[in-house]
């Protein structure tokens, strides 16, 4: 038995608009440094929120913030590789793709304390200065001393 369907024509008087979300501006912009292999105290540009970071030879960074979260700032100008599964994309910052490191290599305070360096996405990151920088970050984040 055939089914009868009534179709109504719908026209819009206004063009559809699509909101473009710009994730480039959603990342906290890190302060760049020429110093390779040394953890240093820094502030995110514009927010003055403290963090510590170490730079690799290729210009990528590992960043630890007040929440204890580690992030990998992948320098796209020097790399064209895939990233490991434990790196979760969060945003872009200039020439960096920013990834959170919620688990695995480079994700914990103990890993950084108990190593001389860690390899993340084929970049070697030293733990030189990590302990003192991490203690300084904890003091600043707990509002006991300024950077």
Describe the model.
- Helix content is 12%, strand content 27%.
- It has helices at residues 109-113, 130-141, and strands spanning 40-43, 50-55, 61-65, 70-75, 88-93, 96-100, 117-120, 123-126.
- A hairpin with a 5-residue loop joins strand 2 and strand 3 (61-65).
- 24% of the residues are buried.
- The strands form 2 sheets. It has a 6-stranded antiparallel sheet with strand order 1-2-3-4-6-5, with helices on one face. A two-stranded antiparallel ribbon has the order 7-8.
- The chain is globular.
- The protein contains 2 helices and 8 strands; from the N terminus they run ββββββαββα.
- It has 147 residues and is an alpha+beta fold.
Throw out a few tags for this protein.
single chain; 147 residues; alpha+beta; 6-stranded antiparallel beta sheet; two-stranded antiparallel ribbon; 2 helices; 8 strands; 27% strand; globular
Question: How are the SSEs ordered, and which strands pair?
Answer:
Layout: E1 40-43, E2 50-55, E3 61-65, E4 70-75, E5 88-93, E6 96-100, H1 109-113, E7 117-120, E8 123-126, H2 130-141
Antiparallel strand pairs: 1-2, 2-3, 3-4, 4-6, 5-6, 7-8
Helix content: 10-25%
Mean pLDDT: 83
Q: How widely separated are the two ends? A: 80 Å
The gyration radius over C-alpha positions equals 22 Å
**Element-by-element helix/strand order:** EEEEEEHEEH
Major sheet: size, sense and barrel closure?
A: 6 strands, antiparallel
- Give the helix tally: 2
Low-confidence stretches: 7-25
Q: How do the strands of the widest beta sheet line up side by side?
A: 1-2-3-4-6-5
- What is the number of beta strands? 8
- Please state roughly what percent of the residues sit in beta strands, choosing from under 5%, 5-15%, 15-25%, 25-35%, 35-45% or over 45%: 25-35%
**In one word, what is the shape?**
globular
Helix-strand makeup class: alpha+beta
């Amino acid at each position: 038995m055939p089914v009868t369907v009534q179709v109504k024509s719908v026209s819009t008087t206004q063009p559809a608009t699509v909101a473009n979300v710009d994730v480039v501006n959603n990342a906290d912009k890190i302060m760049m440094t020429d110093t390779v292999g040394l953890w240093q105290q820094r502030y995110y540009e514009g927010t003055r929120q403290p963090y510590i970071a170490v730079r690799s030879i290729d210009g990528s960074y590992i960043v630890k913030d007040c929440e204890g979260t580690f992030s990998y700032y992948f320098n796209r100008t020097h790399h064209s590789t895939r990233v490991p599964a434990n790196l979760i994309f969060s945003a872009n910052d200039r020439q960096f793709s920013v990834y959170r490191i919620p688990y695995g290599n480079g994700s914990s305070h103990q890993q950084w304390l108990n190593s001389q360096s860690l390899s993340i996405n084929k970049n070697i990151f030293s733990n030189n200065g990590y302990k003192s920088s991490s203690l300084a970050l904890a003091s600043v984040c707990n509002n006991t001393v300024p950077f």
